[in-house]
Specification:
It is a single chain. This protein has 356 residues and is mostly helical. It is 51% helix and 1% strand. It has a two-stranded antiparallel ribbon with strand order 1-2. α8 packs across α10.
Length: 356
């Protein structure tokens, strides 16, 4: 990494090796605060900060006219659509939906302002929890909203799986926390932001991907999802009734798939052999073992196709996120990937000060 403060990204030549120029930019790891980002993200007047508190206060002015969280996540309304919808209501357009000449700020920068603020808050809470846990000798899972469920998942899966996140805001936050310690606390273009994350060997969150990438999740939608979550609009997904209904549906779907794809395969060999008169009383034991062997192969196929993998992460509307869809589509997504509703292969991200 280049530490020369006189260099800028404009010095890089796209037609030479200098296009890979990686200049050191302050991060929360080096500055210890998000103040630098909040201060630099100003209007042309240069006097108004755009920190997490300002973004949330601004959100309350247009909150009522936004689509519901489920609809917003599913349809992913465009920047222009949301901008026009707010403008037609006679409400001041939020700065992340304004153009540059209007004093606007890029959605990815506003999202960084908001999530870095949450990251800094989480760091403080984490330090406080460590102190309390040390004094009271509590285990880590005691502080989890689901009690010891994550601990049980780890034990029953022999440490391979982790409890799934069933709220899209939690998923967005989790992706950001994995890279927060390398996020610049200065305003940078989105391509530079991607480069800084990639150069550290970290996964780029969906909402920071290039717009041409089919896995990209619009940053302005991610920002609105986080703001709606802050106002408890999407927390119905965390309700006991919602979890009970979907957990039951996912469990039934999982059991049915085992019956159809595993037991059904073994049973087909056993029954099929009788239909074509290959199985009789003299060779029943042989066909029983053949059926069990096929059943084992069917089970191996079932695990390969249905078990979560780390590569599944990163697609909010994919197998790792059926909660983001409308009810009917959400049920179908859970039916397609029932195991993903309960567990994931990627461990949850935690706030940390230093780069791993």
């Amino acid at each position: 990494m280049i530490h020369n403060s006189n260099l800028s990204y404009d010095d890089g030549d796209n037609d030479s090796v200098d296009s890979n120029l990686d200049i050191e930019i302050p991060t929360i790891t080096t500055t210890g605060s998000v103040d630098a980002l909040a201060t630099s993200a100003t209007t042309p007047l240069g006097s108004i900060k755009y920190d997490a508190a300002t973004i949330r206060q601004e959100f309350r002015t247009y909150q009522a006219i936004l689509p519901h969280p489920d609809q917003l996540l599913q349809e992913q309304h465009s920047f222009t659509y949301l901008r026009n919808k707010i403008a037609e209501s006679g409400i001041e357009i939020p700065r992340f939906l304004k153009y540059k000449f209007e004093g606007g700020i890029k959605p990815h920068t506003a999202l960084c302002c908001l999530l870095l603020g949450e990251y800094e808050t989480e760091l403080k809470k984490q330090q406080e929890r460590k102190k309390n846990n040390k004094k009271q000798k509590k285990y880590k899972y005691d502080n989890h909203p689901w009690g010891i469920y994550p601990f049980l998942v780890r034990i029953l899966s022999f440490g391979y799986f982790y409890s799934q996140m069933n709220n899209p805001a939690d998923y967005i936050r989790d992706q950001f926390f994995r890279v927060a310690h390398v996020i610049p606390t200065q305003v940078v273009p989105s391509n530079i932001l991607r480069q800084k994350i990639k150069n550290k060997g970290l996964p780029i969150p969906n909402y920071f991907l290039d717009p041409d990438d089919p896995r990209q999740f619009p940053p302005h939608i991610a920002l609105l999802v986080m703001l709606q979550d802050g106002e408890k609009e999407s927390r119905k997904l965390d309700s006991f009734l919602n979890r009970l209904v979907f957990s039951s549906f996912a469990l039934i779907s999982l059991l049915l798939r085992i019956v159809l794809e595993v037991i059904g395969g073994a049973g087909a060999i056993w029954g099929g052999a009788e239909v074509v008169k290959l199985r009789n009383a003299d060779n029943a034991d042989l066909w029983r073992w053949l059926s069990i062997g096929v059943g084992v192969l069917c089970y191996a196929r079932f695990v390969t196709l249905n078990a979560p993998y780390k590569e599944d992460e990163g697609d909010i509307l994919g197998p790792a996120g059926p909660w983001s869809l409308r009810l009917s589509l959400r049920l179908r997504a859970v039916c397609d990937h029932p195991f993903h509703y309960f567990v994931r292969a990627l461990p949850p991200a935690t706030a940390k000060k230093k780069v791993a």
